Amino acid sequence: MRFKRSIPNMFTLGNLYCGFLSIGFAADGQYKNAAILILIGMMLDSMDGRAARMLKAETPLGKELDSLADIVTFGVAPSFLVYYTYFYQFELLGFAVAGLFPLFGAYRLARFNVSTSTTSKDYFVGVPITAAGGIVALLTLFGETIPSIITTVVFTALCFLMVSRLRIPSLKEVPLPKYGTIVTLFLGATLFVIYKGTYAEFPYLIYIATPLYIAYVTYRFIRGKNKKNID
C-alpha cells in the first residue's frame, strides 16, 4: 500500500528533477536540451495526477509536492531559459524581468490550491503555470525561426495571464492527458523532420520518454473508451 502511494510522487519528483536539469542545461548554453526537459516535465506532470486517481493514492503530501515541482520546472526553469537566450542583453533589467515569471506563477499556484473547493472543474482561472512554462519552452526550442520580440511579448503576457481572472477550459472530459498529449504529438512530428541528423543535440531521455508516453496515452484512450461502452 505504501509503495502504491509513492508511485504518483515518483512522477512528480521526476518532473522536479527535469526542472533542475533544465536550469543546468540552460546555464551551460544547451538551450534546446533545457527546453526539451521542460516539455518532458509536462509529460510527467500530466501523469502524476492521473496515476494517483487510478491507484486511489491521492494524498495532501502529493498535492503539495506537485505545486513545489511545478514552480521549479514551469516557473524558475523557463525564466532562466528566457534570460540566457533573450534577456541577458539587458543585463540586470533583463534578469529582473525574467524573475517575474516564477513570482506570478507561484501566486497562481497558491491561489489555485486555496480555491479548488470553490471553483468549477470545467475551467481554470488564469493560465495554468504548466501551460505557460510549456509555451515558453516551445518558443525557445524554435527560437531560431521566431523573432525575439514575439518571445518577449508572449513571455510578458503569460506572466499577467497566469494571475488574471480569465477562464481557461480545463478539457478534463477529454480522455487524454491534456498538456502532455499535445507536447508528445508535436515533438514526435517535428523532431524527426526538423532536427534529423542532430541526435547528439538532444537529451537521450526524449527518445525513451516519448514512446513510453505515447503508449500511456494509448492506454488511457482505450481504457476511457471501454469505460464509456460499459456505462
Give your account of this protein's structure:
The two termini are 29 Å apart. The protein is an all-alpha fold. The protein has nine helices and two strands, in the order αααααβααβαα. Helix content is 74%, strand content 3%. The longest helix is centred in the first third of the chain and has 26 residues. The chain has a single domain, classed as CDP-alcohol phosphotransferase transmembrane (TM) domain (Four Helix Bundle (Hemerythrin (Met), subunit A)), CATH 1.20.120. Helix 2 packs antiparallel against helix 3, helix 2 runs antiparallel to helix 8 and helix 3 runs parallel beside helix 6. Strands 1-2 form a two-stranded antiparallel sheet.
Rg, nearest Å:
18 Å
- What is the CATH first-level class name? Mainly Alpha
* Major β-sheet annotation: 2 strands, antiparallel
Compute the number of strand runs: 2
Strand order of the largest sheet: 1-2
- Kindly name the structural category: mainly alpha
Helix fraction bin: over 70%
Strand content: under 5%
Could you list the spans in which at least 5 consecutive residues all have pLDDT below 50?
Answer: 173-178
What name goes with the CATH superfamily? CDP-alcohol phosphotransferase transmembrane (TM) domain
What oligomeric state do these chains adopt? single chain
What's the number of helices? Answer: 9
Q: Roughly how many Å apart are the termini?
A: 29 Å
Principal-axis shape:
globular
Round the mean pLDDT to the nearest integer and report it. 76
Secondary-structure element order, N to C: HHHHHEHHEHH
CATH topology: Four Helix Bundle (Hemerythrin (Met), subunit A)
